[in-house]
Amino acid sequence: QVQLVESGGGLVQAGGSLRLSCAASGRNFGRYAMGWFRQAPGKEREFVASITWCGVPCYANSVKGRFTITRVNTESTAYLQMNSIKPEDTAVYYCSAGVQVTTPDYWGQGTQVTVTS
């Protein structure tokens, strides 16, 4: 069992930066792929980025070149560095963990990111 807690969300101006954190508790963090998803009002949850247990990242086209996902296994924490933020990045951001990158087994409660223009 893994518990995930996101932090770092908030209000940011377009063009600014924000770093989200996902702290995991439980066993075997280093064995899980970590991911970030987001859900905007009235829209379905969508993939943002993921990172395998050994540090290989993958990004949605909409954030490629602007967002960076990292993890520190010794700290059981994953991060999402968000740069050049756009108003369309406004959403609730969810951290995920799973044995498979594409099928999360665990979710955090989400953190709100609101971008003002």
Describe what this molecule looks like in 3D.
The protein is mostly beta strands and 117 residues long. Helix content is 0%, strand content 54%. Strands 2, 4, 5, 6, 9, 10 and 11 form a 7-stranded mixed sheet that branches. Strands 1-3-8-7 form a 4-stranded antiparallel sheet, with no helix packed on it. Strand 7 and strand 8 form a beta hairpin. The radius of gyration is 13 Å and the shape is globular. The mean pLDDT is 95.
Q: What are the main properties of this structure?
A:
11 strands; globular; mainly beta; seven-stranded mixed sheet; about 0% helix; about 120 residues
Brief characterization of the structure:
By secondary structure, the protein is mainly beta.
Ends distance: 40 Å
Largest sheet, if any?
Answer: 7 strands, mixed
How do the SSEs run, as a string of H and E? EEEEEEEEEEE
Shape: globular
**Structural Rg:** 13 Å
Average pLDDT taken over every residue: 95
Estimated structural class: mainly beta
Strand elements, count: 11
Number of helices: 0
Strand content: over 45%
Low-confidence stretches: none
Q: What portion of residues is helical?
A: under 10%
